[in-house]
Amino acid sequence: MSLTRRGLLAAGTGAAALLVAPQLRAQSSWPDQTITLVIPFAPGGPTDAVGRLIAEVMARDLGVNMVVQNVGGAGGTTGTNRVAQARPDGYTILLHNIGMATAPTLYRRLPYDPLTAFEYIGLVTATPMVWMARPDFPGETFADMLRFVRERRDRVNLANAGLGSASQLCGTLFQAQLGVGATTISYTGSGPIYPEIIAGRIDIYCDQTTSAIPFIQARSVKAMAVTTAEPLPQVPGVPTATGAGLQGFEIAVWHGVYAPRGTPAPVVARLNQALRVALRDPRVVQRLNELGSPPEPESRQTPEAHRAHVAAEIAKWRPILQAAGQFAD
Ligand code: MLT
What we know:
Elements: H1 5-10, H2 22-27, E1 35-39, H3 46-62, E2 66-70, H4 77-84, E3 92-96, H5 99-106, E4 118-133, H6 142-152, E5 157-160, H7 166-178, E6 183-186, H8 193-198, E7 204-208, H9 209-217, E8 222-226, E9 252-260, H10 265-280, H11 282-290, H12 303-323
Parallel strand pairs: 1-2, 1-3, 5-6
Antiparallel strand pairs: 3-9, 4-7, 4-8, 4-9
Helix pairs in contact: 3-9, 3-10, 5-12
């Protein structure tokens, strides 16, 4: 479906009058080619899982192909910067997580400003996290894991997806609360970590349920605690971290869709409309619920709500990360 009068009116942008605007005539055929959805982490992780779910339905609604391009590295900032630098023509968009709000504190020379380098399309989902241990871990409970970490300290191998990733945030808060410094091994995303923890080369890992639940259900790893206020029915028999020994340890990894700054407003509105269609799609909703990560409420799927959330999150995490002594370069 091209960006026609019907599309604009359906987008609720009231921009039909803009059909005569010169810049829009250039966009009147949008989209008429493949759209690239950049995932700033390796394949097989939670961001990739959510991205592929929404891309299939957004593509169908927009009437063009949408290809997922994994651009990992530097905790998600490499792929994010790739989109910040892309042509603002609506054919390159980004799905990124809470790292959009932690990177400004963690990186003193971040190549983009999250609040000025992007057009905001909408929030997608907020995903709980779960602490896992290798399958032959010498213990069964979160209390066993805390004891293991307190005793072995820097002889514990902890994985993450790089400085600025959600897994790094979870690991940082965990170590700050225990006052320990594990040996941290960084990867380009969760995908490459699972073979390592299953092989026993990584002792513990904190990841989002959207990629962890299949491995937990397959008993390939040991689930130790979830980062929600209440236990998750999708991870039965696993306590909350707060209830099993940590104080107020609750993290939800929110995800949002972005386009480069300067992407025309009617294109942003049409992308938002396609995202809303995806988040109402019965199969997408069912799969996200199965993975413990329901879609955001419709009130948070607007560009305005998305931008306000990121600004608030940048302000929220800055003092927390500074207190934890977390800086990059
Ligand atoms: C993260 O820690 O942010 C995730 O591992 C990213 C991913 O792999 O999707």
